[in-house]
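Can you make up a polypeptide sequence alongside its tokenized fold?
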Amino acid sequence: MPIRNSVKAVIVQDQKILTIVKQDENGESYYLLPGGGQEHGENFHETLARECREEIGAEVEIGDLLFIREYIGRNHEHAEFDYNVHQIEYMFVCHLIAGGEQIGIGSNPDDGQIGIEWLPMSSLLEYRFYPQTLRQYYLDYFNGVRHPVYLGDVN
């Protein structure tokens, strides 16, 4: 299976981070950043703009690259169904264009996506927000603490 590139939008506004909401097989909610897989012929910014239109129905201004993480499925807790997955995720700081009044489920939501939600940064560690390891990195970044851009194989 080939290595897959994925880009994610880190959108923080009024001390809240924008997420897409999905449901697991037990009907329990969990949260992810908007974004997704790069298609052949797209650059990262084109991919991220498309994914944000599809998942949150919004245009975004794409800023700096914040973090890069690898996910090698066989090394993590979901190895039973992710064993052959090798994905590299690039997280960019983004801002909603026109304040984001238009956000909602977009034209082509993620499989299993049931909505979008702004999670308060002050209680981010309490949510099933994946990848869970990165929750603290986001909190640190928005509190002025800097980490290396490349985070390695983390989940």
In short: The domain at 4-143 is CATH 3.90.79.10 (Nucleoside Triphosphate Pyrophosphohydrolase).
